[in-house]
Structure formats: structure tokens, C-alpha cells
């Protein structure tokens, strides 16, 4: 699974799946440009491995993501992979949700995927190669009570990927959707390492999945990657 010298942009990299992925890719020789809003956590990630460049920013900000892309080009001269990982969840019944909660979550989960991808696309098209990965969720394929906002954001990511895939394949650009089940991370209300999540996927499981996906030969694309813990029914 060779990713040596690949230049990888990854959002939401300050903790959880993003942090584990950034570290694993760097450990395998990739040059990682990591972004997130938490500058302190991001800086500690950069200090963990010399192959990681930290660029703090809001994924929904065009200016911030333009800086992330330009940093990668200034440092490494190319972009091979964009991993849209930034995201969070709010789980309430529809009549309990606020408009602010809706707007803020959609800005990160959906607009952020669009903004970072759009910022990188001119470079990928000019290169005639590249790979856009979106870390969605298995709830891009199903719904549940209390999940209207979160599932709407993931369905939106799914639709975005579907259209993007049709637009960019002729440019030699791959698009992969990653659909995970339960992951033992900060994402869930009881937090990372809680007894109730001991049999869930680990952040490292997700990182290894990302390594597999982006290390396929040039002629191979993993369009969709569904992954669950054995303990979860699907």
C-alpha cells in the first residue's frame, strides 16, 4: 500500500479519524497537509510527525481552504489526494432543532466538502490526476429518528459525490465515498474509549481503510467503501 511522496490534504485532522489518518499516511511516507479549526490540536499533530504540515482554518471558508491548497502547492508542487473528513453531528427531533444548528452543521458537513474540493479541483484537472475522498457515513444510505439534520447532510454529500464523479472521471480524477458505521471517537456523546463503544470501529481502522483506498494502482478506483464493526447490524 504505497503512498510514499503522495501529497494529501485532509480536513478535520485535529482529532479522531482525521488525526489517525494523517499520522498513518505520514508514517507511510505521504506528505500531509492537515487542516482543522483547532490550531492547538493541529500544531500538536504537526509536532508528532515531520511529514505533516498544519494549516489551521475553517473548512467552510473559501479563503482558508485556498490557503490550504496554496500551502500544498508551495511546499510540494502538486496535490494527489483530498480527504474531506471534517464533520460533526447534532441529533434531535425536527421540532427541537434550531435554525442555527441546521446552518452551522450544514456549513461544515456539506459546504465544507464543496469548498475544499472546489479549491483543489483546478490543480487536479490541470494535472490530469487526483483523488477526492469524502468520509460520509452509512447514514448517507439510511435514516433514523432524531437524525434528520445529520442524515440530510450525509445524503447531500452522497449526491455531491455522485455528480462530481461524473464530472471528473474523464480528467483522470477518482472519487471515493467512505461509509462507516459506529466508530469509537470523540464524535459520540459518551466520548472516546467509553465502555459502550469498546467493540466499535477504531479511528485506526478508519485510517487503515483510507490508506488502502488511496494506495490502489492508477487504473483502479474504489467508488464506495462501506465499513462496520461486526457488532453493528446493518
Helical proportion, percent range: 40-55%
Through-space gap between termini: 28 Å
The name CATH uses for the topology is Rossmann fold
Q: In the residues, how many domains can be counted?
A: 1
CATH class: Alpha Beta
Let me know the largest β-sheet: 7 strands, parallel
Please state roughly what percent of the residues sit in beta strands, choosing from under 5%, 5-15%, 15-25%, 25-35%, 35-45% or over 45%: 15-25%
Mean pLDDT: 96
Using the alpha-carbon principal axes, give the shape: globular
C-alpha-based Rg, rounded: 17 Å
Output the structural class.
Answer: alpha/beta
Order of helices and strands: EHEHEHEHEHEEEHE
- The total count of strands amounts to 9
Give the CATH H-level superfamily.
NAD(P)-binding Rossmann-like Domain
CATH architecture type:
3-Layer(aba) Sandwich
InterPro entries: KR_dom, NAD(P)-bd_dom_sf, SDR_fam
Pfam family, one: adh_short
Family: Belongs to the short-chain dehydrogenases/reductases (SDR) family.
Keywords: Oxidoreductase
Amino acid at each position: 500500500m504505497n503512498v510514499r511522496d503522495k501529497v494529501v490534504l485532509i480536513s478535520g485532522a485535529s482529532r479522531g479519524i482525521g488525526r489517525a489518518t494523517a499520522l498513518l499516511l505520514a508514517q507511510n511516507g505521504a506528505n500531509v497537509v492537515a487542516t482543522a479549526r483547532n490550531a492547538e490540536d493541529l500544531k500538536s499533530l504537526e509536532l508528532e510527525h515531520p511529514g505533516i504540515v498544519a494549516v489551521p482554518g475553517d473548512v467552510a471558508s473559501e479563503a482558508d481552504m485556498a490557503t490550504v491548497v496554496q500551502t500544498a502547492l508551495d511546499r510540494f508542487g502538486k496535490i494527489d489526494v483530498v480527504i474531506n473528513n471534517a464533520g460533526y453531528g447534532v441529533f434531535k427531533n425536527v421540532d427541537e432543532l434550531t435554525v442555527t444548528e441546521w446552518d452551522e452543521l450544514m456549513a461544515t458537513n456539506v459546504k465544507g466538502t464543496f469548498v475544499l474540493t472546489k479549491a483543489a479541483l483546478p490543480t487536479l484537472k490541470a494535472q490530469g490526476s487526483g483523488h477526492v475522498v469524502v468520509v460520509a457515513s452509512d447514514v448517507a444510505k439510511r435514516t433514523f429518528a432524531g437524525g434528520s439534520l445529520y442524515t440530510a447532510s450525509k445524503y447531500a454529500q452522497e449526491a455531491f459525490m455522485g455528480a462530481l464523479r461524473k464530472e471528473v472521471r474523464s480528467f483522470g480524477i477518482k472519487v471515493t465515498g467512505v461509509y462507516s458505521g459506529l466508530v469509537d471517537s470523540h464524535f459520540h456523546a459518551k466520548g472516546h474509549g467509553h465502555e459502550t463503544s469498546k467493540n466499535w470501529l477504531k479511528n485506526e481502522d478508519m485510517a487503515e481503510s483510507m490508506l488502502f483506498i488511496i494506495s490502489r494502482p492508477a487504473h483502479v478506483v474504489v467508488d464506495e467503501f462501506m465499513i462496520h464493526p461486526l457488532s453493528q447490524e446493518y
